[in-house]
Write a structure and sequence with these properties.
- With 287 residues, the chain is an alpha/beta fold.
- It folds into 2 domains: 1-45, no CATH class; 72-283, Aromatic compound dioxygenase (Protocatechuate 3,4-Dioxygenase, subunit A).
- Helix content is 25%, strand content 20%.
- The chain is built from 7 helices and 12 strands.
- It has helices at residues 9-16, 24-43, 47-63, 70-77, 80-87, 198-205, 259-262, and strands at residues 124-133, 143-148, 170-174, 180-186, 191-192, 211-212, 215-221, 228-234, 253-254, 256-258, 275-278, 281-283.
- Strands 1, 4, 10, 11 and 12 form a 5-stranded mixed beta sheet that branches. A 5-stranded mixed beta sheet has the order 3-2-7-8-9, with no helix packed on it. The protein has a two-stranded antiparallel sheet with strand order 5-6.
- A hairpin with a 6-residue loop joins β7 and β8 (228-234).
- The longest helix has 20 residues, at 24-43.
- The chain is globular and about 80 Å long.
- It starts with 8 loop residues before the first helix and ends with a strand.
- The structure holds benzoic acid (BEZ) and fe (iii) ion (FE).
- Benzoic acid is lined by residues 73, 76, 98, 100-102, 193, 212, 245.
Length: 287
């Protein structure tokens, strides 16, 4: 390996790993080395630039905690999280989008028609629709797990220190015999991703803002089907075309209509809504 230069080094590094030939690990590792070496050569990286990258990654690690995952945020603002969502979205199924940092796996079960707002300020929206398979057959007993920010753009879990209950503004619903889900909640507002760390510095360096379009988060699952993690956005709201984490997809934007215009949909609701949002989730078969 003495006879090595800026081109042959790529092969030498790959061969230094004794990976199982043809394995997925080998494919991923060799691809990473190939692309990073190509990038380094193409950019003619200087020592200062490379140390700058390493110091940036160090700063991401330093600010990270189990609650503050700066590397995930970096993946989000660079569009990697969205790219992985896109690659793994199944044809025919609802497109996937960001999980975000605020999911709780043990949110409370709620009855259909429940109100999630707990008396919070803001417009009350009815969110309703069906969960179906890709042939539009309803899926009774499907699980619709949702969480969201409030009308100031804050997740209650972010304000536990101020007496908020982390389980507020979230709920797990089970669809009825017609595959329907329906509940009321507050209309969430846009909010910023954390920008007080190295990723914020990166956004500022690139003249980018940290705002996310207002959204509702969902994990939807049913036996025998592929679960989806996704988000629902509202038409005619801010940041749909420049969401900081590239979470918006055309197919995930729902129409927000005044309740008076929609009329009575026949649901038994805990609270009367000001506006109505309809959205059907489509799941593809597992496997
Ligand atoms: C969110 O949607 O909750 C979120 C996504 C990425 C970074 C921060 C928050
Ligand atoms: Fe969110």
């Amino acid at each position: 390996m003495r006879d090595i230069n800026q081109f042959s080094i790529t092969k030498s590094v790959k061969e230094s790993f004794k990976t199982e030939p043809g394995s997925r690990f080998e494919q991923l590792l060799h691809g990473l080395i190939d692309h990073l070496h190509d990038y380094t050569r193409e950019m003619n990286l200087t020592h200062e630039e490379w140390i700058g990258v390493l110091n940036f990654l160090y700063a991401c690690g330093k600010i990270s905690t189990p609650e503050r995952q700066e590397f995930i945020l970096l993946s989000d603002v660079l569009g990697f999280s969205a790219l992985v969502d896109m690659i793994n979205s199944r044809g025919g199924a609802t497109e996937g989008s960001n999980l975000g940092p605020f999911y709780l796996p043990d949110a409370p079960t709620k009855a259909l028609g429940a109100d999630l707002s707990d008396g919070r300020d803001g417009a009350t929206i009815l969110v309703h629709g069906k969960v179906t398979d890709s042939l539009h057959n309803p899926l009774p007993g499907a699980i619709v797990d949702t969480w969201q920010a409030d009308a100031t753009g804050t997740y209650p879990i972010q304000e536990q220190g101020q007496g908020q209950d982390k389980y507020d503004l979230r709920g797990v619903f089970s669809t009825d015999e017609a595959g329907r889900y329906y509940y009321t909640t507050v209309l969430p507002k846009p909010y910023t991703v954390p920008y007080d760390g190295p990723v914020g510095d990166l956004l500022r360096a690139g003249n980018r803002h940290a705002w996310r379009a207002a959204h509702l988060h969902y994990i939807v699952r049913a036996p025998g089907m592929n679960a989806i993690t996704t988000e629902l956005f509202f038409d005619n709201t801010e940041y749909l075309d420049n969401d900081a984490v590239f979470g918006v997809r055309k197919s995930l934007i729902a129409k927000l209509q005044p309740a008076g215009k929609v009329g009575d949909l026949g649901y038994a609701l805990e609270k009367a809504p000001d506006a109505v949002v309809g959205f059907d989730f489509v799941l593809a078969p597992a496997g």
